[in-house]
Design a protein that fits this description.
The structure holds 2 protein chains of 2 kinds. Chain A is built from 8 helices and 19 strands. By secondary structure, chain A is an alpha+beta fold. Chain A has 2 domains: 225 residues, P-loop containing nucleotide triphosphate hydrolases (Rossmann fold, 3-Layer(aba) Sandwich); 125 residues, Beta Barrel (OB fold (Dihydrolipoamide Acetyltransferase, E2P)), CATH 2.40.50.100. By secondary structure, chain B is mainly α.
């Protein structure tokens, strides 16, 4: 199956003076699993509703295939949206829910119930067609919603945080399931989430949004390892942000004067900085080491430690800069550092220097 | 409260009083319907009779009014429910500020006294009718139409309130989901919103029907020279009441009871089905009992019982008993007459021996003209009717004489 490409051509969506989406410009390839990742209120749901036809772009165009979608209502677009609360019809049985898109297209009762059975088979829920929606568990409803959306074989499936209402175990299970369904049916999935774990595990590519602006569009690994803005660096994954001024740059390595001394990191994306530029240096907790044999060393005061099962999170204070260090749980109790002053270090190529900008959660 | 706290006696007494207060009038009303006394009362008990039902059904004005009421009520349901639904839908689509304003406007007819609505309905439609030059035969001056119009103005607001309560629980995302899945707005309304509103449509229809049927304040004005059930009842009561009204109460109470019991059977069955306890339940698990407590069975049984009672009642002939009562009354009257005659006789006898001694009295006549003579009270000695007033001594010169107005 070949799905159509989706092009957002300089799309802006405004409500009065409020800009929900600002100049979104990207192309989603047919058959891709594409995620929009961002904190709540960043405009990702508005963008999704714009693609499915509930909002019109204030500026720009939405193209599906080569067709401009302007003036085409949600019921006439080749998209199917899975709502955050799933929006299954409570008065209908499971089979009637799945057959609804066929019913409104005038497909006969026999044919549409047969199709519903096929879809139930596909989502591994055979035989529940006669049940009411409220008799199903959260994960089952999830799959029924997907089956309903797939009933008329749309080109594009849009998913609006469909996993947020599920418990952790189920969420992890559904991630794999969704990815498997997507690969099986070969549709374009556009997935909206504020959960970076979901975005990173399932997607072919991720667009990170902040305040209506798409900050970076890249495959998950690139997003995590080579963020292009300070917002992306701080939003995706845990990180330590250390503010400073550029002292010098030699090739890709930037030296930064910070509160806790001169630190070096690599310049993201081959940028060049002038000395005196306000910058952030980002270093992941797992890249911080409890050793002094590193290019950068910092001394810090132990504050507290949290046990998270697979890792230990150590919270430290280095002259007013909060630092976080993550150690893999080796199964043995490590040296007790409570209340002590420790030395930390990290390699310069593990740290990223990015221009001053928004930080997530700040 | 329980026996341990010493509240048992008080609580029981209070409950008894409470129920006596609630149901006492109804019970007495029901009993009076079967007493042959022509005034609704329990004592003295005369005869058990079902004749008052016959009197009720024979009352043309009341039965005509009942038909009018039913026609108007059906019309009001047919108009007020869609209007109420439209109003509720409009309110649910508006922004909060406009919604508050429109809500106040739409709800005002409920707050205005029914009398005012009634009068303004006549005035409005009358003025409208005259302005288009319609005659008195046109619908602008038709009691049925005016009543329909007047009732719809405020009963639609009731329907709207019912729909608003239901719509508040509707998730608008469901409509969006339907649109997204390819439904047209019309299909989304018919297949998603309307089924959701189903129960509300039912209760709104029931509520509007009752509100229309029992309305008096507005109807008494708008019905003009016609009459509905309520206005006919009211005028009947004004002229003097008889137990046929009690008979009517018996019928209404019977219908209400049947309705309530069937509804309860339905509610319990739904609850058992919904919670899934039905197969394990003692009643709903048993195939015979299950059929027996099905609302339809319950309805058929109760309706059958009511029908049987009506049939037996119609066969009951109280004329023998009534004749007996009449005979008894006549005998009692006769007895009273006899007693009186006997008393008079005795008085005469007592008077006769004293006659000689009274003779001097007659010779020198009493100043009261013998008015206190015992004999003067005898039936045959009734005083002559008051003399007509002399025509000439009116201070108005006889201007108010009936004859004065005759053309000369």
């Amino acid at each position: 199956m070949t799905s159509k490409d989706i092009v957002l051509d300089h799309v802006s969506i405004r409500f009065g003076h409020y800009t929900a989406v600002d100049n979104a410009h990207l192309k989603i390839k047919g058959g891709e699993f594409f995620s929009f990742l961002g904190p709540s209120g960043c405009g990702k749901t508005t963008l999704l509703r714009c693609i499915s036809g509930f909002n019109d772009p204030t500026e720009g165009r939405v193209l599906i295939g080569t067709q401009d979608m302007k003036g085409i209502g949600p019921n006439k677009r080749p998209t199917a949206l899975i709502f955050q609360n799933l929006a299954l019809f409570p008065l209908m049985s499971v089979a009637e829910n799945i057959a609804f898109p066929l019913e409104v297209r005038g497909v006969g009762k026999k044919d549409r119930l047969k199709r519903a059975d096929e879809l139930l088979e596909m989502i591994a829920l055979p035989g529940v067609g006669g049940k009411k929606v409220h008799e199903l568990s959260g994960g089952q409803r999830q799959r029924v919603a997907i089956a309903r959306a797939l009933a008329v074989e749309p080109d594009i499936l849009l998913l609006d945080e469909p996993l947020s209402a599920l418990d952790l175990k189920l969420r992890h299970h559904m991630r794999t399931e969704l990815r498997a369904i997507q690969q099986r049916v070969g549709l374009t999935f556009i997935y909206i989430t504020h959960d970076q774990g979901e975005a990173l595990t399932m997607s072919d590519r991720v667009a990170v949004m902040n305040k209506g602006v798409i900050e970076q569009v890249d495959p998950p690994e690139t997003i995590y390892n080579r963020p292009k803005t300070s917002f992306v660096a701080s939003f995706v994954g845990e990180t330590n942000a250390i503010e400073g001024k550029v002292a010098s740059q030699t090739e890709g390595v930037v030296a930064l004067d910070t509160q806790i001394g001169r630190l070096t990191g690599r310049a993201a994306g081959g940028r060049s900085y002038k000395s005196g530029d306000q910058c952030y240096l980002f270093i992941r907790p797992e890249q911080l080491k409890l050793s002094e044999n590193q290019e950068n060393t910092v001394s810090a005061q132990w504050i507290k430690e949290e046990f998270e099962g697979n890792s230990r999170q150590m919270f430290l204070d280095a002259k007013g800069v909060d630092l976080r260090l993550s150690r893999v749980n080796s199964g043995q109790s490590p040296e007790d550092l409570s209340g002590r002053s420790v030395s930390l270090g990290f390699a310069a190529d593990q740290a990223i220097v990015l221009p001053h900008g928004d930080l997530a959660g700040a | 409260m329980n026996r341990g706290t010493g509240g048992g006696f008080v609580a029981a007494g209070f409950s008894l009083l409470f129920f006596a207060f609630l149901f006492g009038p109804l019970i007495i009303m029901v009993i009076t319907a079967f007493n042959s006394s022509s005034f609704p009362r329990i004592t003295p008990w005369e005869c058990f009779t079902t004749d008052w039902f016959g009197v009720l059904f024979g009352d043309n004005r009341l039965m005509g009014g009942l038909l009018n009421s039913l026609v108007i009520a059906v019309g009001v349901v047919a108009i007020a429910v869609p209007i109420g639904l439209a109003g509720a839908l409009a309110l649910s689509e508006l922004g909060p500020k406009l919604r508050a304003t429109l809500y106040t406007v739409l709800i005002t007819p409920i707050l205005i006294p029914g009398v005012v609505l009634g009068i303004s309905t006549i005035v409005f439609w009358g003025a409208l009718g005259r302005s288009v030059g319609a005659g008195y035969g046109s619908f602008f001056f038709n009691g049925m139409f005016l009543t329909l119009a007047g009732q719809v103005t405020f009963i639609s607001a009731y329907a709207m309130l019912v729909f608003m309560a239901r719509l508040q629980r509707f998730d608008p995302l469901l409509t969006e989901a339907a649109l997204d899945l390819g439904a047209t707005p019309g299909q989304a309304f018919r297949k998603i919103l309307l089924p959701f509103l189903g129960p509300a449509i039912g209760s709104a229809a029931f509520l509007t029907f009752l509100a229309s049927f029992e309305n008096y304040n507005t109807t008494v004005f708008t019905i003009l020279s016609d009459s509905t059930f309520t206005t006919a009842l009211a005028s009947k009561v004004r002229l003097g009441t008889d137990p046929s009204l009690s008979a009517l109460a018996v019928i209404i109470i019977g219908i209400t009871l049947i309705g309530a019991i069937v509804h309860e059977a339905h509610a319990r069955r739904q609850e058992a089905l919904r919670t899934g306890t039905a197969p394990r339940s003692r009643v709903y698990g048993n195939p015979v009992l299950k059929t027996l407590v099905h609302p339809l069975t319950v309805f058929i049984l109760l309706a059958g019982a009511a029908g049987l009672a009506a049939y037996l009642g119609s066969q009951h002939d109280a004329s023998a008993c009534k004749a007996g009562i009449l005979e008894e009354k006549r005998a009692r009257q006769q007895q009273l007459l006899d007693e009186q005659r006997k008393r008079i006789e005795e008085q005469r006898k007592q008077a006769a021996p004293t006659a000689p001694s009274a003779a001097p009295g007659k010779a020198s006549p009493s100043p009261f003209g013998g008015a206190f003579n015992p004999g003067s009270l005898a039936p045959n000695a009734a005083p002559a009717p008051a003399a007509e007033p002399p025509k000439s001594n009116s201070p108005f010169g006889g201007a108010f004489n009936p004859g004065e107005l005759k053309p000369e």
